[in-house]
Amino acid sequence: QKEVEQDPGPLSVPEGAIVSLNCTYSNSAFQYFMWYRQYSRKGPELLMYTYSSGNKEDGRFTAQVDKSSKYISLFIRDSQPSDSATYLCAFHTGGFKTIFGAGTRLFVKA
Amino acid sequence: ETGVTQSPTHLIKTRGQQVTLRCSSQSGHNTVSWYQQALGQGPQFIFQYYREEENGRGNFPPRFSGLQFPNYSSELNVNALELDDSALYLCASLAGGSTGELFFGEGSRLTVL
Question: Which chain B residue lies closest to A97 (C-alpha atoms)?
């Protein structure tokens, strides 16, 4: 079983749609849960960061963590063409490395 | 506040050669990590440097080595290049602590022929 599972997509949605991106994980030691956004030919940038179960909202973005199910989600409301990117879930135990999912490619059509 | 900068942005090498990639950390960040991102994959942790010492390493062979300098800039060296080393190499700096919040540069894309 992989430590992190993330559907690579691609996911194509019309502008204005609600997008749901998901990851599952198997390592109970993960304490910090993150979402990074990576535009083509760029480095990843931190989008959302949480350390407990529940929801965290930032503008159009909501991160959700369910530690009991080992499942995290990122919701994007009112999606825009500028949201077209690869979204990487990421996990950290508090040690020295971050574990990334393979990334989901999202296309938002105008 | 300056961000993380990497050089070169692109380079092409042949199998067996050696390569050095460079990174300048974000101002105020004393920890730097290097990641390898193959096409269609997420970044994979190579190693981390704190105060000029390697303090964590992923599942990469010894031909991957690094340095961190007193100004917190860093180098990644790869010897005896193999075709599978073709990837985007990402440098990330951390403000300190162990929360995993990484600030990435734009990467160096290495192609090994």
Answer: B45
The token pair that represents A72 in the structure block: 């995290």
B92 CB-contact burial (10 Å; exposed 0-12 / middle 13-18 / buried 19+): buried
From CA B85, how far away is CA B113, in angstroms rounded? 10
pLDDT per residue as tens, chain B (113 positions): 568 999 999 999 999 999 999 999 877 788 899 999 999 999 999 999 988 999 899 999 999 999 999 888 999 999 999 999 999 999 999 866 556 689 999 999 999 99
Q: Chain A contact for B106, CB < 8 A?
A: yes
Contact A96 B90 (CB under 8 A): no
Between the alpha carbon of residue A19 and those of residues A13, A47, B17, B90, the distances in Å are 8, 15, 44, 27
Q: Are B55 and B49 in contact (CB under 8 A)?
A: yes
Q: Touching check for A61 and chain B: CB below 8 Å?
A: no
Closest in B43, B98, B99 to A44, CB measured: B43
Measured CA to CA, the distance from residue A18 to residue A110 in angstroms comes to: 14
Distance (Å, rounded) from C-alpha A37 to C-alpha A89? 9
Interval A18-54: pLDDT, tens: 999 999 999 999 999 999 999 998 999 999 999 888 9
Spatial CA neighbour of A44 closest among B9, B37, B68, B84: B37
